Amino acid sequence: MKRFNRHTEVEKQLEEMNRKFVEVEECRFEFEKAQKRYEQLLQSAPDAMVFVDRGAKIVLVNAQLCGLFGYSEQELLGRDIDFLIPERYRHRHHDYVAGYFEQPRVRHMGTNIAAFGLKKDGSEFPADISLSPIEAEGRIIAVAAIRDVTERKKAEDEKHRLMEQLAEAEKLSALGRIAANVADEIRNPLTAVGGFARRLRKIADSDKERQYAEYISSEVDRLERILRDVLAFSRKRSPLLEDHDIREILDEALKASKERGRMQSIVINKEYGDSAVVRVDKSLVGEAVEKLVANALDAMPGGGTLTLTTDREVVRGVPYVRVRIKDEGEGIPPEKLEKIFEPFFTTRTSPKGTGLGLSIAKGIIEEEGGTLRIESAGGKGTTATILFQDIRGS
């Protein structure tokens, strides 16, 4: 009987062990199923994701993170997270990671914290990062979701630039209206002063009187030039668009500067390419070129060579006619180069300039659908480059 009871007890234990084994297998199966489902979710997540432990070591990544940074999963696992950020930020990042694990918390994207990622090829990108703490196997793991926001930053920068341009345009428009009204008010009395000064010069009894009259007349001429520039800067233009060979416009504009160039011992060198047709207002573009040439002559009071070149440039698949006006002057320092298109800003110490020439030239060229850029380096002269769409090449 005892033997029978022992046998029965063993059978019960075996049945219990078998039941527990089945339960363990079911749990293992469910665990593996949940793990696989989690891994599928991780790999299908739209963001690059990395899991980091308290020691700042990478314990898990998804395919998006590998693709974003250019590393394989094997190259990432076990590495310090710091190697995915630019070196200049690493000295404080370890402290930041330690501080995060001291007080784990959720941090959403869009918190305006500047962050950058470092790819395997050495390139950097601006990043937006969210952080979430999770508990796994009795320890806290930080989960970071990372987005490359390069395009968003470009869009934000472009929006900011356009807003600045709009504000500047509104300010200049108001300034132009005020300047035009002031110019109209003082034009007639200024003309009268100039006329009387010329008469005084003719009837003056002494050299001193003639000198004073000449000085008044000279200053009136300077004020009249300023008035003309102010009115040219502020007026609204109605371009008469027609097809013209750009070389003819340049030759016409050079006529006004030919004598001045000869007096300053400046050689005018023309390096024209083939016929290049642009659709512009000939007189307005000629005015802009005259101002650019005058600016180049101002840069070479002791003589030199003024070179005008025409050729072509392709920008994003679109052919443009390119005009370059190059002087051999002292050049423009970098700190002044970014301000040269501002109204009334001038790099010259001579009192004869108004500081409006480049502003007027830029305004005209842009109204005609072109672009103007100025390139310069100290001691190496300055080059003004004009681009107009090539009618024949489009």
- Radius of gyration (CA) equals 37 Å
Helix content: 40-55%
- Total number of β-strand segments? 12
Q: What characteristic shape results from the CA principal axes?
A: elongated
From the 3D structure, determine the CATH topology of the largest domain: Heat Shock Protein 90
Q: Which sequence of SSEs, written as H and E, runs from N to C? A: HEEHHHEEEHHEHEEHEEHHEE
Structural class: alpha+beta
Using the 3D structure, state the CATH architecture of the largest domain. 2-Layer Sandwich
Cross-sheet strand order for the largest sheet: 2-1-5-4-3
Unreliable segments of 5+ consecutive residues: none
First-last Cα distance: 109 Å
Contiguous helical run count: 10
Strand content: 15-25%
- Mean pLDDT, all residues: 80
Tally of distinct domains: 3
The biggest beta sheet reads: 5 strands, antiparallel
What does this structure look like?
This protein has 394 residues and is α+β, with helices and mostly antiparallel strands. The chain has 3 domains: 45-148, PAS domain (Beta-Lactamase); 149-236, Helix Hairpins, CATH 1.10.287; 239-394, Heat Shock Protein 90. It is 51% helix and 22% strand. It has 10 helices and 12 strands. It has helices at 2-44, 63-69, 73-76, 87-102, 150-203, 207-234, 246-263, 282-298, 334-337, 357-367, and strands at residues 48-52, 58-61, 115-118, 124-136, 139-148, 242-245, 266-271, 277-280, 304-315, 318-326, 371-376, 382-389. The strands form 3 sheets. It has a 5-stranded antiparallel beta sheet. A hairpin with a 5-residue loop joins strand 11 (371-376) and strand 12 (382-389). Helix 5 (150-203) runs antiparallel to helix 6 and helix 7 (246-263) runs parallel beside helix 8. It is elongated. The model has no long low-confidence stretch (mean pLDDT 80).
